[in-house]
Amino acid sequence: MRLFHALGLAAALSVASMASAAPPDTLEQRIAACLSCHGVKERGDAYFPRIAGKPAGYLYNQLRNFQNGHRQYPMMNYMVAHLPDAYLREIADYFAGQHPPYATATATAGSGATASAAQLERGEVLVRQGDAGRKIPACVSCHGTALNGVAPAIPGLLGLPSDYINAQFGNWKNHSRRAAAPDCMADIAARLSVEDVAAVSAWLGRQAPDADARPASSLPAPLPIRCGSVPAGGAQ
Ligand code: HEC
Ligand code: HEC
After folding, report:
1. pLDDT by residue (tens digit) across 23-32?
2. CB 203 within 8 A of CB 127
3. What atom of ligand 2 comes closest to residue 200's alpha carbon?
């Protein structure tokens, strides 16, 4: 039902954009279409990520990635296909400035709700300490101690459905999600076993972010490995 509704909106948007060469519709109209999938819901929607409050540079990079096929999700590829670059930046800036309440941890736990204590413990160890033996840096070393992300290009990891996180690791592993080289997340995903991915996704999906969670403005130490999508010199 929701998908049908969204498809209707997208069709309306594309008719509107064919009507004239300049961006014809207002930011508000376009954002209303986005909210049919990205709005805050009481119930978890397994694969619809929260975008509000993520750093603008990260959101812009993702809109570009959907536009150029580095990420694949037909509805998203379609929504941004013909949007001019300046518009993508405007949309990214808009959502970065929005801070609606987070969904509850019950809503984002998804299939992580049935994880065992041992799985959750493994997940938390990977998040906070990584696994040096397998060259997996701690997630907090890039995503921030509070996991709220770091401006401008590293997203927060809390408030996302665990099934969405799981699916993204699948995408990195099969190369259907790519970022600018060196693609640090693709490298990290390749080093994580399927069990580790399930453990880390389950743990993350079960955490409730602070109501006032915001991306950090810098990291206390340089990134443990380089990420092409993060401006050189670290996350300034
Ligand atoms: C039909 C539902 C739907 C609509 C409408 C929709 N999205 Fe999405 N969007 C998704 C899904 C599902 C994903 C995750 C796709 C994947 O698995 O990579 C996504 C991913 C994203 C991401 C990446 C999020 C992240 O954390 O990496 C951004 C940014 C985004 N959408 C922005 C938008 C904007 C802006 C609009 C409106 C122009 C929009 N979306 C409309 C379903 C939708
Ligand atoms: C070396 C730095 C670094 C480390 C370590 C790291 N990440 Fe990331 N992560 C990034 C960057 C940069 C991005 C944005 C990639 C892009 O632009 O697509 C990202 C994106 C993500 C996303 C996408 C979020 C979304 O909304 O789609 C997830 C999920 C993620 N990382 C999970 C993890 C987990 C779990 C770990 C620990 C096992 C981890 N990351 C460790 C740098 C890192």
Report:
1. 556 888 778 8
2. yes
3. 35
Q: Do 111 and 200 lie in a common domain?
A: yes
**What does pTM read for this prediction?**
0.91
At 174, which CATH number? 1.10.760.10
Residue 42 and residue 120 in one domain: no
What are the residues whose beta carbons fall under 8 Å from the beta carbon of 28, sequence distance 6 or more?
none
CB 160 within 8 A of CB 62: no
Task: Check pocket membership of 201 for ligand 2, CB cut-off 6 A.
Answer: no
Give tens-digit pLDDT for 173-224: 999 999 999 999 999 999 999 999 999 999 999 998 888 999 999 988 999 9
Structural domain of 20: 2-96
Q: Whose CA is nearest to atom 18 of ligand 2?
A: 179
Say how many domains are in the chain. Answer: 2
Pair of tokens at residue 148: 């709220």
Instruction: Give the relative orientation of helices 27-38 and 85-96 as an angle to the nearest 10 degrees.
Output: 60
